[in-house]
Amino acid sequence: MDFEKIFSHNEAWIAEKLSVDKNYFNKLSEGQKPEVLYIGCSDSRVSTEELLGAKPGEVFVHRNIANMVISIDLNVMSVITYAVEHLKVKQIIVCGHYYCSGVKAAMEAKDLGLLNPWLRNIRDVYRIHKEELDLLKNPDEKYNRLAELNVEEQCINLIKTAAVQKAFIERDLRVHGWIFDIRSGKLIDMKINFKKILKEIMEIYNLNEGKSIF
Ligand code: CO
Hints:
binds cobalt (II) ion; Beta-carbonic Anhydrase, Chain A
């Protein structure tokens, strides 16, 4: 990557924005009011704004290896709390992708040092869905299905948080599980049936004195 080019591109971008609206950056500096929180993979091929066709100011973004929502990760939990309680986003997207190297690494019997505790969370998703995954004989199919199930589990992890449950009760907040198919470029809405899933597990994870969150 040519770093010189980055800065000349930046100059051209400023000129282009100002040619359309001379107050563009003044407006940007006034603050943000994004309606969407996007949690995705750090993978260089899954570029958030390009994928969503979003402009600066429209999406609050968090990316990590394999789009994980881990309750003791202060980083993702701070992002969720800020987005839900302060920015009051209306939609949260957890977007995974096929051929995710984080998911692949979690399927291999290898010691990856510092990465082990992170990947352990994906191994746990594998364990929860082992019965279904073991039926898939094609390794690619199994690997990509785990990427889908991981999105589903991370959406559930989101709904286990007090901030999201509170927002569900008090206002309209939607959670979406998506998958980006790198082979075709297609963005797929997994249309996860949260009501059904939550019905089964809310007895355990409800943080609102039993109050129904839907
Ligand atoms: Co990935």
